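Quick one, tokens below. Sequence please?
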């Protein structure tokens, strides 16, 4: 995706500039060409000679350089790129960008460009959280400036918090994602996914059924997130109030058996995410409405097929990545680990659905990602954010680069 892309890299003055040589190396390894503008303060952290050697191009530093302007005017410099990447982006350069200042070559190029801009902020945590910086960030985002990072961790100033520049692989991934999107592609383009969502309804007689409290919000959000990343998604949904997601093939079903059949029909697939709350039992359906005294007949239950376990069975059609959900009220992690093995799936997204968590029907979810490697605790996120994070993880697992 980065082959032959022209990147104008603006290096402003922060200690994170020491990561820039590696960034240039990795970009060039992927076939991108990199041309650098180094600000005056950036040059305190990394030398123009280093950047020139690694990029194989002249490094531009001075707005009023007669030779530079004769060779390549600052306007041309800002336009002869597919994207401008500011890394590191200091609080100062973000403020200048937000205000439209143009008092050096970097800010002039940023104001004169007609190309997309991405920033990788890096600064002290207090500078990052300062309302001025946050307001500038919002202004920049409202102008479609892409932002990668920062992340939390130890900062060079000795403090701990948000403000570390995104690591090189993250910046590369963000650039890759940007170019994929611009071509209507995503990291999951070419891959097929099956997602189950919602409850199932198991009829008892013509008027009654067994159901559960699943809203389908999480499963539908997963289908949407996978589709946004380019996957060809079949969403097999039980009865929900959720709208069919755009760009997704939706198969509406009612019972677990119908869900099983729809999933089997959708095979082969590369990815399965089983988010549905499938009823474990189905009553033997009566043709006529049962009378009050027929309780025993109503609960003549038989076990439903386990869709997740069936799809995860080893064999030539096994999808590459099978993800289940485990909604529990007790022993969350232990049960999830047991399910991982028992159902032969690759990951389990475990969530506590005890009374009071508000997960069923709510908009947020607190989940743990259980894999063979261990357990990751995710913070409480909107169901949409859980879905996006899961889709990102799936993309990384299937396209390690
Ligand atoms: O065993 P349990 O129902 O707790 O497992 C939950 C996981 O298994 C979920 O991913 C759910 O979608 C899936 N499942 C299934 N078919 C069933 C029961 C559960 O696909 N009959």
């Amino acid at each position: 995706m980065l082959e032959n892309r022209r990147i104008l890299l603006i290096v402003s003055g922060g200690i994170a500039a020491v990561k820039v040589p590696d960034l240039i190396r990795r970009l060039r390894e992927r076939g991108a060409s990199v041309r650098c503008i180094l600000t005056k303060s950036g040059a305190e952290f990394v030398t123009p000679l280093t950047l020139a050697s690694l990029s194989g191009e002249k490094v531009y530093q001075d707005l009023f350089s007669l030779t530079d302007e004769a060779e390549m005017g600052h306007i041309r410099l800002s336009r002869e790129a597919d994207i401008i990447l500011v890394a590191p982006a200091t609080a100062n350069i973000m403020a200048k960008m937000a205000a439209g200042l143009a008092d050096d070559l970097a800010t002039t190029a940023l104001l004169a460009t007609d190309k997309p801009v991405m920033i990788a902020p890096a600064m002290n945590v207090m500078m990052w959280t300062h309302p001025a910086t946050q307001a500038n960030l919002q202004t920049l985002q409202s102008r479609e400036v892409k932002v990668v990072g920062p992340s939390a961790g130890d900062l060079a100033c000795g403090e701990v918090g948000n403000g570390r520049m995104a690591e090189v692989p993250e910046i590369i991934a963000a650039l890759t994602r940007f170019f994929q999107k611009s071509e209507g592609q995503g990291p999951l383009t070419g891959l097929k996914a099956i997602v189950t969502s919602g409850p199932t309804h198991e009829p008892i007689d013509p008027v009654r059924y067994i159901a559960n409290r699943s809203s389908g919000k999480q499963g539908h959000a997963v289908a949407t997130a996978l589709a946004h990343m380019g996957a060809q998604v079949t969403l097999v949904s039980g009865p929900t109030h959720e709208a069919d997601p755009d760009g997704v093939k939706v198969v509406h079903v009612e019972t677990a058996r119908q869900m099983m059949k729809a999933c089997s029909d959708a095979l082969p697939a590369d990815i399965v995410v089983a988010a549905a709350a499938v009823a474990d039992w189905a009553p033997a359906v009566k043709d006529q409405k049962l009378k009050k005294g027929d309780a025993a007949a109503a609960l003549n239950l038989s076990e439903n097929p386990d869709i997740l376990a069936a799809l995860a069975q080893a064999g030539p059609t096994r999808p590459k990545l099978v993800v289940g959900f485990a909604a529990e009220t007790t022993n969350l992690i232990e049960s999830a680990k047991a399910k991982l093995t028992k159902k032969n799936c690759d990951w389990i997204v475990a969530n506590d659905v005890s009374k009071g968590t508000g997960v069923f029907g709510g908009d947020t979810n607190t989940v743990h990602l259980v894999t063979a490697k261990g357990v990751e605790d995710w913070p409480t996120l909107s169901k949409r954010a859980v879905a996006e994070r899961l889709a990102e993880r799936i993309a990384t697992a299937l396209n390690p680069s």
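Residues 24 and 43 are 16 Å apart (CA to CA). The first helix runs from residue 20 to 29.
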